[in-house]
Amino acid sequence: MKAKLFEPYTLKNVELKNRIVMAPMCMYSSNHEDGKVENWHRIHYTSRAVGGVGLIIQEATAVTPQGRISPQDLGIWDDEHIEGLKELVDLMKEQGAKTGIQLAHAGRKAVLEGDILAPSAIPFNDEMKTPVEMTAGDIKETITAFIKGAERAKKAGFDVIELHGAHGYLINEFLSPLSNKRTDEYGGSAENRYRFLREIIDGTKQVWDGPLLVRVSAKDYHDDGLDVEDYVVFAQWMKEQGVDLIDVSSGALVPARIPVFPGYQVKLAEAIKNGAGIDTGAVGLITTGIQAEEILQNERADLVLLARELLRDPYWPRTAARELGVEIESPKQYERGW
């Protein structure tokens, strides 16, 4: 049986050479607090491209200065960011990887000086700052910032855009009734809580015709929060809007005890894939080629995203290929060693 992990996969109009994706992971390495690309990013991302990853999704990249998780986050809120991002894209593409960027706003989980914004004035926990409830004007400005971020991502040459709707950041905060207590058109019903994401997707589609992904936290791990059945409905709406794939994670909206085990989130990706009829990516303690292959062979997801495992082993695709008995192409400079 041919290993599905190393089969090409077409994401709208972009063909990936395999189904291995590097999940976005913050590096907190923009040392001058200006959101610009540093040498660390050039080395870190290009190493995984050399290692054989099919699609590399750049870490959460802030669409506004106020939307950073930390002062060291990468940014895409200004045209001055484009040059560094384009250089990074070119380096990754030169080594055979397709490139993605995760557009993000931290909402109430921003750890910054000054006011932070959220759908409602509810802090994440007792230690964190109480956010300012967003006005209608704040909401419109933030939607515009996401759209401008997409325009800059296109100018930088990215192949794929992912909207960060997971892990308790701003879009996720609007979606969940635990963090969204609004009484206007952006709160209350599921349709209203989805409206913020709906308008971001619609606006992004006006300026971006490439593959569009959304990362979600498909389970709040709270009795009064959202579960995967709610996200099947959201995913159906996203599909109708033209989203190409849902990147399925979970948790981090509120403090919670999460039962963690190998592949613990795969069942969520499987439920959304089958329930909404949309392609999904599975992520979460996926560490071996055999494990990744099982997910794909059994059509539990369409792509496999790795995070910490690619920090430990930048050449994980080669490790997985050996495990599965598959020959893959080496960088010609390394052929005598591999």
Quick structural summary:
This protein is an alpha/beta fold. It has helices at residues 39-50, 82-94, 136-156, 170-175, 190-207, 228-241, 266-276, 289-297, 308-312, 316-324; strands at residues 9-11, 14-16, 20-22, 55-62, 98-104, 117-118, 132-133, 160-165, 212-217, 245-249, 280-283, 303-306.
Write the layout of secondary structure elements.
Elements: E1 9-11, E2 14-16, E3 20-22, H1 39-50, E4 55-62, H2 82-94, E5 98-104, E6 117-118, E7 132-133, H3 136-156, E8 160-165, H4 170-175, H5 190-207, E9 212-217, H6 228-241, E10 245-249, H7 266-276, E11 280-283, H8 289-297, E12 303-306, H9 308-312, H10 316-324
Helix pairs in contact: 1-2, 2-3, 3-5, 5-6, 6-7
CATH architecture: Alpha-Beta Barrel
| Number of beta-strand segments | 12
**Order of strands, widest sheet:** 3-4-5-8-9-10-11-12
Taking pLDDT < 50 over at least 5 consecutive residues as the criterion, the unreliable ranges are: none
